[in-house]
Design goal:
Elements (H helix, E strand, L loop, with lengths): L21 H21 L34 H31 L1
Helix pairs in contact: 1-2
Length: 108
């Protein structure tokens, strides 16, 4: 336990008043909404912005089920949400980099 930290994290989950799993809402959905709200400020032609998106070494693919992205039925909501964070990070990177490439093409 001292070398790996295993057993220190307890993975409890509940449901928010909006019907979302708490761990999913905290670790992924809230961050997604924040980035979407900041998009008009971050994405300007001719101006560079950088978004730093972090995850966890506890992000395990085995904990994530694409048919249950909120991890309603699993036993590792934290690991699942952090793996989903990694996937969303890749999707954001692809989306925003394509947007930048389009803007550069439109400028010329």
């Amino acid at each position: 336990m001292f070398a790996t930290g295993e057993g220190i994290l307890t993975q409890k989950d509940g449901v928010t008043t909006d019907g979302l799993q708490q761990v999913f809402a905290t670790n992924l959905f809230g961050h997604f909404l924040l980035v979407r709200e900041l998009e008009p400020v971050l994405c300007h032609e001719g101006r560079t912005s950088q978004l730093v998106w972090t995850s966890s070494s506890n992000a395990h693919r085995s904990a994530f089920n694409p048919e249950d992205i909120q991890h309603r039925t699993g036993t590792q909501p934290y690991s699942s949400s952090k793996y989903a964070t990694d996937l969303l990070s890749l999707a954001f990177n692809q989306h925003y980099n394509k947007q930048v490439e389009r803007q550069k093409l439109n400028v010329f």
